[in-house]
């Protein structure tokens, strides 16, 4: 699954002041990422505020992004949830004409056992017509998908080709890298750990900050995969302050503040999220200037 190696970005959903989708800003964001080295785009993930985007809007987003993309880079669609039957139904009913893969989050809120997580993804793998990237993010789901469960799924189902691991746990990453089957991709879901994961044998990242700084971030990941540690860490150290700032309050309010400072989109989010505070926006603007971006 070489199309998912490198830097994927979890796209925001830009909104107008009335909280309708800002398609002009979305076009700017997609073009900006393609022009600056992003390897693939992830639509309707957590950063895209998928919880408050309606099913009808989700279809609109996919169709619009595909129209702008024109097949230039792969597209991954987020389809997940904690109602297995509902997720399976959506997977069966989705149009994949322009979609290259599915990102599916481990079930949240219900806090299933490891066997429950395995059975959930087994049901998905048996019907999915596109490659599946598992998504483990314990900070949001309240349950951790262990390396043992991830690797069991990887070995049992050809449709499961990768994991976006976002447990912010270095040992867990290393367990996955040490024991993964050949060809299975370990992707970082933690922007701050992404370079270390790449240097240790990971295949890349699905990033939040990457969409705001695609040239720098994607180059860092390419250097990491190539084991060029010094050059990669030179970039990493420059990006550390802005990466920390975007997660200081909530995601995606932080990265939306960065994109607003870059004049790509507005900072609006839908409730229950709120915009970054004025203090955080000011600190982000300062760091954007420090990076020579405004």
Could you outline the blueprint of secondary structure elements for this entry?
Elements: E1 6-10, H1 23-35, E2 40-43, H2 55-69, E3 75-78, H3 84-93, E4 101-105, H4 114-125, E5 132-136, H5 138-141, H6 147-156, E6 160-165, H7 170-179, E7 185-188, H8 194-199, E8 204-207, H9 214-225, H10 229-246, H11 253-261, H12 278-290
Parallel strand pairs: 1-2, 1-8, 2-3, 3-4, 4-5, 5-6, 6-7, 7-8
How does this structure look, described?
The structure is a single chain. The protein has 294 residues and is α/β, with parallel strands linked by helices. It has a single domain (2-228), classed as TIM Barrel, CATH 3.20.20.70. Helices cover 45% and strands 13% of the residues. Strands 1-2-3-4-5-6-7-8 form an 8-stranded parallel beta barrel, surrounded by 4 helices. Helix 2 links the parallel strand 2 (40-43) and strand 3 (75-78). Helix 3 runs parallel beside helix 4 (114-125), helix 9 crosses helix 10 (229-246) and helix 10 (229-246) runs antiparallel to helix 12. The radius of gyration is 18 Å and the shape is globular. The mean pLDDT is 97.
Keywords:
12 helices; 8-stranded parallel barrel; globular; TIM Barrel; single chain; 8 strands; 294 residues
